[in-house]
Amino acid sequence: MTTITVCTTCRNAVNRDTQKGAPTGEDFLDLVRERAEGSGIAVRGVACLMGCNHGCNVAISDTGKMTYVLGRFDGTEADAAALTDYARQHATSASGTVPFRQWPQGVKGHFVARVPPLD
User: Fold this and answer.
1) Low-confidence ranges of the chain (pLDDT < 70)
2) Does residue 7 have a cis bond before it (omega within 30 degrees)?
């Protein structure tokens, strides 16, 4: 099952330097969960994906498929929508690879890393 893992300790660019308030990642996780509800996409949170300079960070993964790490999100509803749209395409792809022309506009420019499957 394709899973979106959201870093719960991330802060977006606006509050990263000040460190004021709660991390953006907690609210972003809630938005992604709401957006993914009923889609067959699993969503989970994790404390720190070690991409602090790229926050808000997420990983999209599934067994036997490419894993994609994305960052530099503001943690908005539009970001959550783009991520879940991309994750749906990841889920229907045999390899997890989605052709660039099919990427939602909201994920373009946000890819940080691509990790090949272990199995």
Assistant:
1) none
2) no
